[in-house]
Protein: Peptidase M11 gametolysin domain-containing protein
Amino acid sequence: MWETCQTYEHAELEDGLFLDEVQAENCTAANWTALREQLIAPRAPLVRVRESCNGVSQVIQEAASNGCHTLPQAAGASFVDVPIGKAVTLHAAGDCTGDSVTVDTDTNLCETSFGSGASANDQVRSFRVQDVEVLPSAHRYDCAGDESTCVKNNNNASKLGAINTKHTVKVVRIALDGRTTPALSTIQNTIRGVYRDFAVASRGQVSLEFTGSQTVQVTSSNCTTAKNQARQKANSSAFLTVFVLPGGMCSTSNAGSRSVFLKGTLARDYAHEIGHVLGLAHSNVRDPSTGQVRSSADSSSFMSTFSADNYNLPQLHWLGWTKKEELVGINSAIDNNGSTEVTLRPVGTNDDSTSSLPLGAVWEIPGTDQRLFIAVPKPRLNGTNQIEGGTVFAYRAPKCVGCTGMAMGTMQMARFGPKSVNEHEASGLFLKPVGYTSSFVQEGGKSVEVFTSVTLRIRK
Structure:
């Protein structure tokens, strides 16, 4: 289905909605054209007010725009869905007046109070939607008109502000008689490990706070039914709710809105599904000789099905985890001179560096809404995967102006070693290594080459 429908051409199709339609048997040859247009149509993130104290109860009202919204006279609000990047002020009176409380995560109003201390449950009469306040940061920047090498991040500024902060996380362990689910302590330890990596990759912008944990008992072994039962019992108020499933209940892990459902405790599964919540889609690979596309096969990113050390460079940029000087646009140099040379340092863990070398070169692909990111994912071979140190990757990624949902998917277009003597084509450019710097370290009686830079000549 993935290859037949070519969903990899539209990352919006991989945000869970497409899979929902497939499972509902709506993705057929007869209605695919209409369904595809419906799925890829831009969708504004919605604030939803619900009637009961959980995120699957009946929706009373939806709001797509900022501003004041008044609830129906007899409505009793008990839960509010808040998209990442938005804040909602709930008011006890109409026209956004009276007692209030502001929330910026999905919130269970049965456990929420107004500023006065009075319960907010069933007492909300209006609400105001606004963007999250964005604090200054070297990782959130603008490109001036005369900065020809500046690579703009088109992710929404308020969303970047909401992503790059402390993440409150609630863990929900789903139990079913006759099935085994990992212990809460095991789950929490895995999440801590993932967030230690996030703290490094985000340069200290992202941190973790557990807001609670619970075990919920479900009665059905059906994957969808059990998930709904768990959500009804969780009543979570958090940036992210992590549900861990009993073994053998569901065939895959998945994510949607601010929740992830995991079928195991592999750290890569956590990083992959949390990536979806943060707006990342899958990291795919295109074979340059055949044109065949392999889904989620780019092992340089957590957003694949393979072990990885990090997200890839287009995704790190989208998350706001790179600085202006760490990416260099090459269109002007190539347009003016026909070619250019760039020296790149490896991405590695994306820790903050004193190096003046950029992490990547970026080509705005003419006549498209796509970019080509050229990067070196790893300084050296390690035990995570078989990507050798100094290997160069070229990724096609959307510019993503106005994107919402799980939008930043990538396509690996080329991959080659730093000592290659050939040119390699990717999206109309020809790339050739012309130099590198490296040294050797001894580990376990073996000599391991560690790269600190790779120089490329790039031409049209």
In short: The mean pLDDT is 91. The chain has four domains: 2-40, 47-131, 164-278, 282-459.
